[in-house]
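Quick illustration, no need to memorize.
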Amino acid sequence: MSSCISMRSKLRACLAVTAAAGMLGGSAVLAQAAPSTKGGAPPSVAPNGAAAPTGAAPTEGRPSRGPGPGSGPPRIHTLFNSGDPTLALTPPLGGSRAAPPGSAPPNPDPHDLEGVWQVQGYEYLLGPEPGVPPPLKPKYMKLLEQRIRAKNRGTPEADTETQCLGHGMARVMESPYPIEIVQTPGRITFLHEVAHELRTIYMNRPHPKHPRVTFNGDSVGHWEGDTLVVDTIAIDPRSFIDDEGSAHSGQEHVIERYRKIDGGAELALTITIEDPVTLEHPYSYKRIFHWRPDIRPQEYICEENNRNAPINGVTVAK
């Protein structure tokens, strides 16, 4: 499958089309949704300028980090709820629905996470609540403002994602593309469709004394009852916490807690982010992933048809 990348550019058509294909599963759906990603916007366009993902859950009235559909507080549309259009936040995508009727039933075993999962909603800003930024220190909050204003001018800062490098943590877990989890003795592996990113969680062992710095970090895990706890350090500081551009340092520390709910039909995740350099204090947020046995993760080659490859440090939509 020809692919493109940028969840932060103002033209996100390619991402939404490929996400739509993943939500429905199978390359035939992609062919129907978008005969070509080589040029032109898909016919169905959402308010943010991206194609409306076929089969995606609606965003209206849906709490992006709650356990399921329902009403919530009004969306915050600008940074600090300021009303300043230059600080407009990118609207969320609806994300995955539950598996369609007739799909294979979920496995209720709390310690067996194998299979394909997809996030319920997709937020561009990953703070403690939707529309609320991380508790960044003043220097880094100003940097976030600069990045959001550049995005809204149509000249977003080039980041690791648009350069076909790793998304980083916790950003990669927010991708609207499916994730296949594979469990083998001593490790749990996350196979991300997005850019074919890979996370290996080594079980019941400490971090190396001198872990290699990588975009998605060094991850170790253990079980606390029915909850998988994953600890990640050594995350490359060139990446961002989220798609809006919240900064982290090389001292970022991410703790994830995964637990099956609803008989295994959903995977609840609580993420806690610590960074003594960029954050005033640690913070947490929650996500829900749907069990999607109907989806077959697709090929995603970032370097092929990269419609948002940066030029002179600026992401350029082509």
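Helices lie at 13-24, 27-33, 138-152.
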